[in-house]
Amino acid sequence: MGETMTAEGSLLEVSGLGKHYDVRRGDGQQPAALHGVDLSAAPGELISVIGPSGAGKSTLLRCINRLIEPSAGTVRFDGEDITHLRRGKLRPVHRQIAMIFQNYNLVYRMTAIQNVLHGRLGYKGAVSGSLGLYSEDEKVRAFELLDEVGLGALAYRRADQLSGGQKQRVGIARALIQEPKIVLADEPIASLDPKSSRMVMEHLRRVSRQRGICCIVNLHQVDFALEFSDRIVGLHAGEKVFDGVPGSCTTEVIRDIYGNDEEVGLGLAPDAAAPGCVALASGPLIAHAEVL
Q1: DSSP H helix total and E strand total for the chain
Q2: Is position 270 within any domain?
Q3: How many Å apart are CA 66 and CA 220, to the nearest integer?
């Protein structure tokens, strides 16, 4: 389904990616979290990965940045095969592949500005990193990034005193101070209200378009994927079943991706104003669905 992007001009090239966990089912078979997934991503592209819970979305992102080890296939980043790099050689890769987490992953006893500066730890030695020694240029940049995400006035507020949307925007600023080439966002709006969700997605789209940073975002909110993405990738049971532009992601395609539309509460209807696209109908919205 859809038109798969070619490797030409790609920053990231994932080929035949597979991941098997050691947990076995009652029938003795080992479940595959990912099976033969191919994915290319270009600078400045915002890609949304959609699919039901357990489809392998989080596993895909964690294999890309080597937080977990792939069982099969290759991951090439910026022309280099990083699939089997040893931990010591992964540090420069992790500087260029930033991560935004669903649960924010902030240090709550620290301020917003301190959390943003943590994005520079990959550039520090053991002593300067442990002591939190940052240059004046790094501090100025951290303030600029907080201003950019609308939180300049809250720079000295503790993270545990921020709202969910504010915490996620701190996470975006922390990712950007790494000066990454790719930002991986794992369900960044799953716990947010619709207004905060839209604000976070607008910031991510601005990051991709104005800075030329590739953003790959796992989403369970199909309406936001359709609105903000340059491309949508659909996963089902660990396999890629769709790769194309939002305009080709029809109601039928979405139902194929999710399988049982009643189970996930699809409230989708054809959009007469945009042939080939879909719009949310009245009723339960995917934007409020939770994902594991």
Answers
A1: 10, 12
A2: yes
A3: 23
Backbone angles phi, psi at 240, to 5 degrees: -80, 120
Residues 57-67 pLDDT 10s? 999 999 999 99
Asked whether residue 136 is assigned to any structural domain, the reply reads: no
Name 178's Cβ contacts closer than 8 Å, sequence gap at least 6.
95, 96, 98, 119, 120, 122
Secondary structure E strands in the chain: 12-20, 32-41, 46-50, 72-77, 80-81, 97-100, 182-186, 214-218, 231-236, 239-244, 268-270, 278-280
Tell me, yes or no, whether 271 lies in a domain.
Answer: yes
Residues 130-151: tens digit of each pLDDT? 777 899 999 999 999 999 999 9
CA angle at 225 for the pair 223 and 227, rounded to the nearest 5°: 70
Asked whether the beta carbons of 160 and 41 are under 8 A apart, the reply is: no
Question: Looking at the domain assignment, is residue 175 inside a domain?
Answer: no
Q: Could you list the residue range(s) of the whole structural domain that residue 263 is in?
A: 12-21+31-104+181-288
CATH of the domain at 240: 3.40.50.300
Q: Which two tokens stand for residue 33?
A: 């979290």
d(CA 31, CA 168): 32
Chain centre to alpha carbon of residue 129: 26
Say how many domains are in the chain.
Answer: 1
Residue 65 and residue 62: Cα distance in Å, rounded?
A: 5
- The model's pTM: 0.85
For the residues of 223-265, what is the DSSP string, one character each? HHHHHH-SEEEEEETTEEEEEE-GGG--HHHHHHHHS-HHHHT
